[in-house]
Write a structure and sequence with these properties.
OB fold (Dihydrolipoamide Acetyltransferase, E2P), six-stranded antiparallel beta sheet, 1 helix, about 10% helix, about 45% strand
């Protein structure tokens, strides 16, 4: 199981491949690295509907499995294909506490310490920063 955070770029319509198989492709842009990557995912069967409530531009977290397969062409050439099979799409922060850096308490001193006590603690500290 893998997860990717990014922005929905494209959501395609559901394709009925055979009588018993349907798929829906969508693209998520990952801008976490030096170069943005557009990642193609697919949802299959009943999971095609999980994309109905989403629009391009939304920030999401995609949970997916990596699938690989071998295919032999009519000319006998063997090729390998990978697919990213999405099984869950959630809006960023959905189901998780919304705690950003502005909400983090980085003060390690007790709240009851006085200003003078804080100055004394700073004098005892021999760290250069």
């Amino acid at each position: 199981m893998f997860k990717l955070n990014g922005t929905i770029k494209v959501i395609k319509d559901t394709q009925q491949i055979t009588d018993t198989f349907s798929k829906r492709e969508f693209v998520v842009s990952d801008t976490s690295g030096m170069y943005p990557q557009d990642i193609l995912f697919q949802a299959v069967q009943d999971r095609c509907a999980m994309l109905d409530g989403y629009q391009p531009g939304e920030q999401v977290e995609v949970s997916f499995n990596l699938r690989g397969r071998e295919w032999t062409s009519p000319q006998g050439e063997v090729k390998y294909f990978n697919t990213l099979d999405a099984w869950r799409v959630e809006r960023m922060g959905q189901g998780m506490p919304q705690e950003g850096p502005s909400n983090m308490n980085l003060n390690t001193q007790p709240a009851t310490e006085t200003t003078a006590g804080a100055t004394d603690a700073a004098e005892d500290d021999d760290l250069p920063f």
